[in-house]
Amino acid sequence: MGEMMKTISEPREDYKPFVPRMVQIEVASEFIGAIIGKGGETIQGLQKETGTTITIEEVPRTDGVEGTKGVVDIFGVDKTAMDTALQRIKDICAVPEAGKVYHGKVVSILDFGAFIEILPGKEGLLHVSEIAWEKTEKVEDVLKVGDEVDVKLLEIDAKTGKMRLSMRALTEKPEGYVEPERGGRGGRDRGPRREGGDRKGGNDRGERRNDRPRRDNADRPRKPRFENNEEPKNNEPDVF
Predict the structure, then answer these.
(1) CB atoms within 10 A of CB 113
(2) pLDDT tens, 39-92?
(3) Most CB within 10 Å of its CB: which of 31, 36, 114, 152?
(4) Interior CA angle at 20 toward 17 and 24, to 5°?
């Protein structure tokens, strides 16, 4: 025992990096499909990327609550790769929280902002006005598809689930900064709405209608229904 204690006096906190190991976690049943992906695309891609073997099984819950849960097992011989696989699965099952900061990737750019994937399969909108405190003329001047950026999740719409992100919220507001005023819908000032009387043509439509002389149908000559004003004889066709 004395000789053994000279080599190691207490158990190591972890195995050596290349010792085969297994990690098991439990996930909510609603995330099983997301982990597997369409046709197994997600789980197969993760195994190929990390060199791990991942299995997932749906089993009954054991906490006294009706329903099922997912049990995920990760097998591998490289600790770093297994940690990567484990974190990716946790990210898939993560629920975004307003107020938290996320490291995301730009997946698409539009005129009014960029969509950032903050978690696997979860995207939010970074509006052009939330990129920086100073005015950003074009999103493309600052961001490109594939860029990785830190963003703060400002809010999640309770009805639609849409997420609003911000980059400028992570930087200090310039001294004396004043939020620019925004116009009407779409951010443009469309000016006062014209009333019907201002339309081309001058007068109100109702007045023009009342000024028109009313035509008396009684004074109009009526076209005879039958040719020569004569009633057709029996078995003779009507002529109109």
Answers:
(1) 21
(2) 999 999 999 999 999 999 999 998 888 899 999 999 999 999 999 999 999 999
(3) 114
(4) 100
| Contact indicator for 51, 43 with CB cutoff of 8 Å | no
What is the amino acid identity at position 83? Answer: D
Residue 21: which of 78, 72, 70 has the closest Cα? 78
Q: How many angstroms separate the CA atoms of 208 and 200, rounded?
A: 13
- Give the pair of three-digit tokens for residue 221: 């000559």
DSSP string, 33-95: HHHH-GGGHHHHHHHHHHT-EEEEEEEE-SSS-SSEEEEEEEEES-HHHHHHHHHHHHHHH--
Is 166 within 8 Å of 154 (Cβ atoms)?
yes
Least confident of 10-24, 68-82, 122-136, 175-189: 175-189
H or E, element range at 84? helix 79-93
- Upper half-sphere CA count for residue 31 (Cβ side, 13 Å): 21
Q: What is the pLDDT of residue 240?
A: 38
Cα 49 to the chain's mean position, in Å? 27
Residue with token string 């789980």: 43
> Which residue type is seen at 94?
A
The predicted model gives 196-200 an average pLDDT of: 43
